[in-house]
Amino acid sequence: MKRFLLILPALAVAFAVILYGDYIALPTHNTSASHFDTIIVLGTPASPDGTPSPEQRERVLEAIREYRAGLAPRLIMTGGAAHNHFVEAHVMAQFAQSQGVPADAILEEGRAQSTIQNIYYSAQIMHAHGWNSADIVSSPYHLGRTALILDAFNRRDPELHIDWRTDPAAWPSEYHLPSKAILYSVEAWRCLTLRLVGFPNSRFLPTATQFPTAAPAPTVQRVPLRGGEKLTPP
User: Fold this and answer.
1) What are the tens digits of pLDDT across the range 86-118?
2) Global pTM?
3) Structural domains in the chain plus CATH codes
């Protein structure tokens, strides 16, 4: 028992090195492009009162900075009412408009219930418009798993292949070091698990042998969002 207690710290250190080493080594892009067809802002839940949550705020602000710098001419806000009754894409789109982004430069994807669905529906919108490249914005801790999902889509579903790069939003000022450490640790574990066992098959991310036909692209309809373009479910 005493010997085990002596080697326990070494085992913990070795596990941490494997866990965080794998996480740090995850890709951040599959293209060297410096300009993109669109910026995709991945959704996260709104606040209980329907206002942008701290993470939503920072993700949108980062996308706005990139949009104003000329990185891409438009933004896709993606995320449904996954965790409360507020559609994440709509909350983010309204916030972007309040910061001066023209409504006709914003598309809303309001069905996704997970990061996999964020990528699935956004890639469908892109291909429906003839767009092939995207800069993906999300919170810093979330980008590793996002990269794994993007890579899996490009391998499993070539018809939805996109060129991509991930960009981290700033950490919300409301988040302190312990919160950041927990979020990073949880995501590092999830990424390591996905690297070891892979993604479960689903209609959104099936194996290559489960294709051969692509799912129909979602319909983009113009609705009264201050003149903007909004994705509405069929």
Assistant:
1) 999 999 999 999 999 999 999 999 999 999 999
2) 0.82
3) 29-231 (3.40.50.620)
